[in-house]
Automatic annotation (TrEMBL):
DNA ligase that seals nicks in double-stranded DNA during DNA replication, DNA recombination and DNA repair. Transmembrane segments: none annotated. The lineage of its organism: Archaea, Methanobacteriati, Methanobacteriota, Methanomada group, Methanobacteria. HAMAP family: DNA_ligase (MF_00407). Its EC number is 6.5.1.1. It is an enzyme of class 6 (ligase). It catalyses: ATP + (deoxyribonucleotide)n-3'-hydroxyl + 5'-phospho-(deoxyribonucleotide)m = (deoxyribonucleotide)n+m + AMP + diphosphate. It comes from Candidatus Methanobinarius endosymbioticus. Its cofactor is Mg(2+). The gene is lig. ATP binds at E246, R253, R268, E298, F337, R414, K420. This is DNA ligase.
Amino acid sequence: MKYQKLVDVYEALAATTKRLEKTSILAEFFKKVDIDTLPKVVLMALGTVFPPWSEEEQGIADKLLMKAIADVVGVSVRDVEDQVREQGDIGGAAEKLYKAKSQTTFFSQTLDIDFVFSTLRKLAKISGNRSISRKIARVLELLSSASATEAKYISRTIIEELRIGVGEGIIRDAISQAFNVEKSVADRAHMLTNDLGLVAKVAKEEGEEGLKKLNLSPGKSVKPMLAQLSEGIGISIEEMGEAICETKYDGIRVQIHKKGDKINLFTRRLENISKAIPEMIDYIKKAFPDEDFIAEGEIIATKNNKPISFQYMLQRVRRKYNIEKAIEDVPIRLYLFDLLYFKEPMIDEPLAIRRKTLEDIVDTSIDQINLSEMIKATPENIQDAVNLFNESIANGHEGIMIKNPKEPYIPGIREKKMLKFKAEPETLDVVVVGGTYGVGKRVNFIGSYKVALQEEDNQLKTVAHVATGLDDDTLAELTELMNKYKIVEKGTKIEVEPRIILEIAYSEIVKSPEYGAGYSLRFPVVKRIREDKGLADIDTVERLKSMFKG
Ligand code: ATP
């Protein structure tokens, strides 16, 4: 099938903000695509050519892409940069520049979907000698055969940002509409496999029956089960009747997959971070039996056996070079708390069984591998849970988790099966959409950040300007990120792509027509940059409204 057909669909999707319309457009298209191309189209509709658990990336920096576009249309890189500033993104700039050159035709061949997909995938495989020029050659091959709109979307797929307002939810609904399968069945198949391409293929070929047979598979990350807020330790334990209470560690959540000899570690956003913390893989190998499994735990950074800031852990994960030195400088520890697969799927077992199996199989004589500290609580021994909480805070941890021992593990949900009780008041995760340069000593830094929450259909609504809680290092880091994601700059004001997630504390929610959300935050303070979260994880206007005390 021609790539232009997919591009027409992208354009139609970008032209509407209505979720139902987007779903129908995609559903109609999915029906027409043949079975081998369907999984590819599903990934490409999400703006990528790799499944979420893949370690591979195309590895084309924005600068290189701009250079390739400049070469194809015969302008300078500066011209491309100017267009990017004007259009707001590289894809838009490519389209504009191609159109301006419309008298010359670039097309040497018609692009089809499979060719674009496989060429983009091959980019990830190119490494070693002259890899950059070899990658560029591939990109040029695509771009020089592309029409203006094709160039727009090839560019956007390379930077993995399609800007068509389609997320996994819409794709899932479109699959269910196209192949006439229950939404809940498609949802479950997605949560278990984390592979929408596969879900689409099975839905088309085998319908609901096929989807019901899909299950967890080590090596493919699953969406983690998330926690709700507990209103109080006593109340929650009384409601559950009995509970497993565990220390809540403040690090990063990891999902550990072993399949054959290969161990992979995934973050909460299902990024593969195996390469960043190789020492942990060695510890895990020693501590677990040689069977396929999926386990979950929290990795924290320590100094003298005490937990240190969560930011250190993030730095470890982000690091690509000097890993040896980081291993020495920032020792890490794993606290295991769940087992999703051991020889076979275990998520339908109650937590009590999953935990017991974890205890039976893990060798905790290795210092860095631990089980999360836990107690069994009932309404008769609530004080034990309170003591665990106090101990947790005294030891530099975050609070406690209160979990229902009878419940299965349901990927991707946030329900009362698992609760969290923290020492600090609740915070909000927001995305930065703009900022203002500071004055005086902060003139080179962006001192104030305009932040937004999400509303249904992925719309962003501004909610506050936050300017406090930032030390000089964080300011410098944020300013650098802001420049990386800059769309436009006017005077001291800058607008950015919604990429940077901040966790914000505040004193009160107030009504405020000045902000898109209709509400604002009094005295907002940045707690930290949440690199472990993405745009899909930020808080919603709905949640803000439900928290508003009136
Ligand atoms: P938060 O911002 O509070 O960490 P979150 O949105 O990242 O919340 P939640 O599911 O709401 O995620 O909170 C639970 C998180 O707490 C888990 O994702 C995990 O990272 C962490 N955690 C720490 N210790 C435990 C534990 N013993 N059991 C389960 N989760 C734990």
